[in-house]
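Your task:
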Amino acid sequence: MNNLSLYGWNDTLFQLKQNSPYKHLFHGRIAAVNKTNYEVIAEGGRLLCELAGNVLYGRPLFELPCTGDWIIFQPFDDNKGIVVDILPRKHTLYRRKSGTLSDRQAIASHVDKAFIVQSLDANFSVRRTERFMVQVLEENIQPILILTKSDLEFNLHQVERSLEHIGRQMPIFFTSIFSPETIFPVQKFIKQGESIVFVGSSGVGKSSLINALCERTVFSTSEISKHSGKGRHTSTRREMVLMEDSGILIDTPGVREFGLASDNSKTLEELFDVADFAASCRFENCMHVDEPGCAVVEAVNNGHLALEAYNSYLKLRKESWYFSTSEHEKRKRDKSFARISEEAKRIKKR
């Protein structure tokens, strides 16, 4: 038997279930997504579920179950069931689907905190951290930066200086799986019932960090590559694990690209300290590029705002704008197509 409160079940979710026409059935949480089925944690144990037709064909792809979703299911055999409904999502981390402008992909839902994992080797990138952080903040998820492999040689002063603007927005931990004293503070930061998603590039040590936090081997890891000096990619799916007397950890495969999947304008201004200067711009709709009286550009020229951070702000804002514009146009096309289809049906009936 599983105590689902340890997996995040609470009164709010119970009330949401009462609004479902399937409230009389069982509920559980998606622990992992496979190609053809879903692993579900329920009170009675762990089972494999497939999707009912109304779920599979009645929702867009990004609304299909993802790791962390709470679902309602109908059991039909030993350790098997059918997902008939999905409870409304809360704090869902999305990313833009690779190769598209406006399609998005759900990574994990009902998330309280996101551990943005970066390694202190050649893989370290402030710009990549910013990208993860913007999307996490947009979903009202608390970001935490976890820097791994602190046992390697690195320039501490240079790293801290490059992260100054980020450090005001979220906690930063320097860790090494070979130094338990660096893991303990991270363990204490995780509260019982909280859901933590781990995001980062391949080889930064997400699975190894989870093993260290759980103090047991829950995910397989591989040795450092002698050729590249980087950890080898081991996670192949998003999977949830319960820490003993603590929270829920969600491991994710390393990503080469993490495209923004929402309009992040306000979040971007706050992250890069642009908002402090933007209030003094001559025009309210200032784009902070080449407008006369732009206080942001003036701050860059005077050295009050770092040029690297400003350029990163412009790049991410452009990407965010492209996504929101493309999504808006896509919705307009979908609505137009729906109207044309309805008109075609009416003509056919005549």
